[in-house]
Predict the 3D structure of the following.
Amino acid sequence: MTTGISDNTIMMFVIHDALRRDAEQLARGVEHRDMHDPSRQTAFLSGWEVFKRQLQHHHDGEDRLLWPLVRTYLPARDEENALLSEMEQEHERIEPLITSVDTALRNSDAAWLGEATVTFRQELLAHLDHEERDAVPLMDAVLTAQDWRAYSRAQRKATGFKGAKEFFPYILDQADPDRAAQVGRLLPPLLRLLVSRAWQPRYAQTAHWN
Ligand SMILES: [Fe+2]
């Protein structure tokens, strides 16, 4: 089965799917969380920590590397530049909402946590939909395969080996099989092997969310 998504942008969709999955896990966890069960509490917090790290890393890479790269192709295209500014503004709106969830969790404030989670989830899901609907087609149209490779390289450099160990299992966890297969085909054989034989089993040893 094909996904109907280009090889250049498949990673973007798989990352977004993982972020949506965790927005649901967070909302479900906040609703049903047993604050008195230490092992569930630990699992919930480790799910949140990974989610937060991966979301911030994803947004940071787009803000520092991807949008500036796309802008180099759009010198006189006001409408497209405005769209990229909207992407940046949405990231700016989401950042304090992450802090709000974080602070509510640290203070064990259930009411605050409930409200913060609803707002954060709404903003994040709206942003991901907006990006996929309008910004991804724009990127697909203007960026070359070489640009995408350069972006991936820069992202890998920013996170290093340790980051990759978490990133691949994170995005492939419960991923759509066709999308995961497409990502797998794009990875160098040695990396594919590392992910499936070492990093995914290790990642699965830690309980995330529950
Ligand atoms: Fe994105």
